[in-house]
Design brief:
The chain is α/β, with parallel strands linked by helices. The chain folds into two domains: about 180 residues, D-Maltodextrin-Binding Protein, domain 2 (3-Layer(aba) Sandwich), CATH 3.40.190.10; about 100 residues, Periplasmic binding protein-like II (D-Maltodextrin-Binding Protein, domain 2, 3-Layer(aba) Sandwich), CATH 3.40.190. About 45% of the residues lie in helices and about 20% in strands. It is built from 13 helices and twelve strands. A hairpin with a 5-residue loop joins β1 and β2. α7 packs parallel to α8. It is globular, with a radius of gyration of 25 Å. The termini are far apart. About 45% of the residues are buried.
Length: about 350
């Protein structure tokens, strides 16, 4: 015979019920915490200043390159407590974030941890296509020129045919110079893949490019200023190919930021245009601020003559047109980063 079921004490049932209720409450609290975290990441936060004034936090990214001169200058002024954007946008706190290359900045856009970025056009284009036109907009131009293909000065590379079997460094896979490099090599008849091919393209950070070029572990480098000049003056490099008219840097915005802070984005773009005009009118002071900020960010001092050499290769402008982007679409397609013609109708959107 089976024993009759034992009676479970009442306090045991109560304990189970309490545990269930605690779990349900814990789940609800966890959900609320997750929502709060997502909201904090998806939009600029608010801070309270010393005078009790509420400030909007604007998160801005850039690279430690002379091609991002406007951002370097503004970052330096923020460090000095004389913020360019802070004094023109009203009660804001600019938080600066430094990246090595564009794809990293676009990942920050997707993670909703960055609002604006000075970045190359190709990463913006890739992010636009990846998000089906939903996540990023170009709101202004910033710089053209300043990028080049540098080879060793010993004459080992004289013609396009001499690149076969060589190793060429670029700042990061899919960044503007990486795409330009691959597109140019394909145009010379080479097969180039992410893992090798007739010419090996090695995405490498700019400081490492300089070291590897000196040790001849890289045969050539496609990069931007000030690294082009540093390769020339410190490592015996010579410029094989320059892109004097290529769009190098744009000012991009996350669409979520534009949707919630369009007026603020418009003020930022206007202040950026004013800063660009100031750079053109005050080149010596602009270079001084750029040099100071580059030293802060890279721990490397750049001499005035090297910086001036870099400066001569650049043209700073806040103007932007869709025509300039079409050139990079063609390059990205030939390099294998795009399989079809993308819809660019919403990519360029200066805030009004």
């Amino acid at each position: 015979m089976f024993d009759s079921p034992r009676r479970v004490p009442l306090h045991f049932h109560v304990s189970i019920q309490l545990m269930g209720e605690v779990m349900r409450v814990a789940v609800r609290i966890l959900a609320l915490v997750c929502v709060a975290i997502c909201m904090a990441c998806s939009a600029p936060t608010e801070t309270t200043g010393t005078a009790g004034q509420t400030k909007t936090v604007v998160r801005v990214g850039h690279f430690p390159n002379v091609t991002h001169a406007q951002a370097l200058i503004a970052h330096a002024l923020t460090r000095q407590g004389q913020g360019w954007f802070e004094s023109r946008l009203g009660p804001v706190e600019i938080q600066w974030h430094v990246y090595n290359a564009g794809p990293s900045a676009m990942e920050a856009f997707f993670a909703e941890s960055l609002d604006l970025a000075y970045v190359g056009p190709n990463p913006v284009l890739n992010a636009h296509i990846k998000s089906k036109g939903e996540e990023v907009r170009i709101i202004a131009g910033s710089a053209t020129g300043g990028s080049a293909l540098v080879v060793h000065g010993n004459g080992s590379i004289k013609t396009p045919q001499d690149f076969r079997g060589r190793r060429v460094g670029t700042p990061q896979l899919g960044n503007t110079q990486d795409v330009s490099c691959r597109a140019w090599l394909v145009a010379q008849g080479y097969q180039v893949t992410q893992l090798g091919g007739d010419v090996t393209v090695l995405p490498t950070s700019n400081p490492d490019q300089l070291s590897l070029f000196k040790t001849r572990d890289l045969d050539a480098v496609w990069t931007v200023e000030p690294w082009v000049s540093l390769l020339e003056m410190e490592a015996g490099g010579v410029v094989y190919l320059e892109e004097p008219d290529a769009l190098t840097t744009v000012l991009a915005a996350r669409t979520g930021f534009l949707d919630t802070h369009r007026e603020l984005a418009g003020k930022f773009a206007a202040a950026h245009a004013e800063l660009t005009r100031w750079v053109l009118s005050n080149p010596e002071e602009a270079r001084r601020l750029v040099a100071a900020e580059l030293k802060e960010e890279t721990s490397r001092a750049i001499s005035p003559d090297r910086l001036e050499r870099s400066w001569r290769r650049l043209r700073f402008t806040s103007e932007i047109s869709l025509d300039a982007i079409e050139t990079f679409v063609a390059a990205a397609r030939s390099a294998g980063f795009l399989s079809e013609q993308p819809d660019l109708s919403r990519l360029v959107e200066p805030p009004r």
